[in-house]
Structure formats: structure tokens, C-alpha cells
Write a structure and sequence with these properties.
Layout lengths: L34 E11 L5 E12 L4 E5 L6 H8 L7 E6 L2 E2 L5 H11 E5 L10 H6 L7 H5 L1 H11 L15 H13 L5 E5 L7 H18 L2 E6 L2 H4 L4 E6 L2 E5 L1 H10 L2 H10 L4 H16 L3 E3 L4
Parallel strand pairs: 3-8, 3-9, 6-7, 7-8
Antiparallel strand pairs: 1-2, 1-4, 4-5, 9-10, 10-11
Helix pairs in contact: 5-6, 6-7, 9-11, 10-11
């Protein structure tokens, strides 16, 4: 089936995978995975009374210490899924288990506490406080931590800024920093409480290719060092190819993606960079992203299988 330039091929054209892709996350026998979604569904009721299914039948296991990427076009439900993974929103069906604990049974207060202690968020828009220094921005999550974290917040924040290579910029404010520096501050802020799960939502979307690659390498390196799980939500196949396992979110359903085929597509074509260069020259970054994903996906016919997203 042919695909128009800039369009994404239908999921039906993707060949199934015959064997599961191994992950780097290791788990002792008899212990629960860090994060598990079971038959997860999320629906909303529209003003006219109709029910819109955004996510349906999603099964996913994320182990501590592994890097998982979820790829999808705009409107595929990526943000809704991120809100489920990060315990921000509740599902309308299924369960979300965090370290074996059913989060859907917890009160809002307990969910918020679990989220604050165990989950770090990195967003496309850096969301830094403009009137605060880099050091003060990184310290912010510590204000809501334990007494020990509160009193040790400056030392911990400085150590994290040093880890991301910005110790010399601790007193700089966001408007005096480059986009890459601001994103590294955002990474430091997300990791300062040593979360067990790092959720990165389009972390390279506002960055140039070279800076984006550096930020992703930093995120992956820190996650490996700390043993935290890293889940990247992206529309960029080049970012997805850096992960241990990749998934495609299409029509609210999660499909397992053949990682090696995805990487082969990028190696055998101009990939994401060419798509951005060719279409991005028009200034339409949304179209550039669509073209890059569509071209690479169509070239590889990246394998996918429905259900059992392990």
C-alpha cells in the first residue's frame, strides 16, 4: 500500500513480530515489575453524551533500569497515556500497578505522594520559573520532600547541576540560558529526588538535532546509573531507536515495534534528519515531523504486533 508524502502508513501494513524483544531491566524472581498496565482504558464523555475511547486494552510492563519509548502521531493518545504512567490521571478501565501496588485503589493524596517520591517528569517545554535561578529551579521539588530532603536541597541541587554539566550556571536565570541548557536544568530538576521512574514527554521537541541527541544521551546515562526506568514519549523515530524497547500508539492501541527494523530504517534512509531538513525548510515543523516519521516507517515497514506489550 502506498503512502502519501508526510502521511503515516496504516498500522495494518506492519508485519507482526514473532518473538518478544528482550529488555535490559533485570528483576529478581518473585518481585513485581516497577510499572505495569493491565487492560488499561481511558474514555471521556463528550458534550453530546457520546463516549470517546482514547486508550483501550493497553498491557505494558516497565522494569526498573530499562529505557522504553512510545511513538505516536499527534492525537494518538500519547499525552493521555503519559498521564496514566505518571499517576496524574485515573483510568476508566483496567489497572495501573506501581511496584506491585494498585494505584487505582489509592486516594488522591496517596497517589500524589507516590508520584512526588517516585516519578520525575521532563517535558518538551522546559517549564522553568523565569524569575528563579537554575539552582532555585532544581531545588523546587525538594521543598515538598522529606525534612531531610528539604534541609539538604541546595547541596543535592548543586550535585545534580554538576552532573548535567551546569554547575557554573547555577546562578543564571532561564532567559540567560540556551535551549539546551534550559532542558538540562529541567532534567536536573526531574532527577534531583532520585525518582525510580523518569517520564520524558517529547524531551527533544524544542531542541536542534545535535542538542537533542546530547540531552537524550544524558537522560539515558543517568537512568542507567541510578537504575531508574526511563519512558520516552516521542514522535521522533531517531529518539525511539535509542531505547531498549519501542512501542507504537495508534488509535488508542499499543503495538510492539521491532527495534532493529526501526534502527535499520534510520540507517538505510535519510531518516528523521532528512525529513526535518526537507520539509522543515518551509517552516512547518508539524509537517516536517509527520514526513520524517512517515518516510522512515514506510521504508522499514517496522514490525508490530497488537496486545501483550511486554
Amino acid at each position: 500500500m502506498s503512502t502519501a508524502p508526510g502521511a503515516e502508513p496504516p498500522t495494518e501494513s506492519l508485519a507482526p513480530i514473532e518473538a518478544p524483544i528482550p529488555s535490559r531491566g533485570a528483576r529478581a524472581a518473585g518481585t513485581a515489575p516497577l510499572l505495569e498496565l493491565r487492560s488499561l482504558a481511558r474514555a471521556v464523555r463528550l458534550p453530546g453524551g457520546e463516549v470517546l475511547e482514547i486508550l483501550r486494552g493497553i498491557d505494558l510492563i516497565v522494569e526498573g533500569g530499562e529505557h522504553v519509548s512510545i511513538v505516536g502521531r499527534s492525537g494518538s493518545g500519547k499525552t493521555t497515556l503519559l498521564n496514566q504512567l505518571g499517576l496524574i490521571d485515573r483510568p476508566t478501565g483496567g489497572t495501573v500497578l506501581f511496584d506491585g501496588q494498585d494505584s487505582t485503589r489509592l486516594s488522591d493524596r496517596r497517589r500524589a505522594r507516590l508520584r512526588g517520591e517516585s516519578v520525575g517528569f521532563v517535558f518538551q517545554q522546559f517549564n522553568l520559573l523565569e524569575g528563579r535561578t537554575a539552582l532555585e529551579n532544581v531545588m523546587m521539588p525538594m521543598l515538598y520532600g522529606t525534612a531531610r530532603q528539604f534541609w539538604g536541597r541546595e547541596k543535592a541541587a548543586m550535585e545534580m547541576l554538576e552532573r548535567v554539566g551546569l554547575a557554573g550556571r547555577a546562578q543564571s536565570k532561564p532567559n540567560r540560558m540556551s535551549g539546551g541548557e534550559q532542558q538540562r536544568v529541567a532534567v536536573a530538576r526531574a532527577l534531583v529526588r532520585r525518582p525510580r521512574l523518569i517520564l520524558a514527554d517529547e524531551p527533544t521537541g524544542a531542541l536542534d538535532v545535535t542538542t537533542g541527541e546530547a540531552v537524550m544521551a544524558l537522560l539515558d546515562e543517568i537512568a542507567r546509573e541510578s537504575g531508574a526506568a526511563l519512558v520516552t514519549i516521542t514522535h521522533d523515530l531517531q529518539v525511539a531507536a535509542l531505547s531498549d524497547r519501542s512501542f507504537l500508539l495508534d488509535g488508542g492501541v499499543l503495538h510492539t515495534v521491532d527495534r532493529d527494523a526501526a534502527r535499520g530504517a534510520l540507517a538505510g534512509t535519510a531518516g528523521i534528519r532528512a525529513g526535518r531538513a526537507a520539509v522543515g525548510a518551509s517552516g512547518d515543523t508539524t509537517q516536517a515531523t509527520g514526513a520524517a516519521v512517515g518516510d522512515a516507517d514506510a521504508a522499514a515497514r517496522v514490525g508490530a504486533s497488537e496486545g501483550g506489550a511486554r
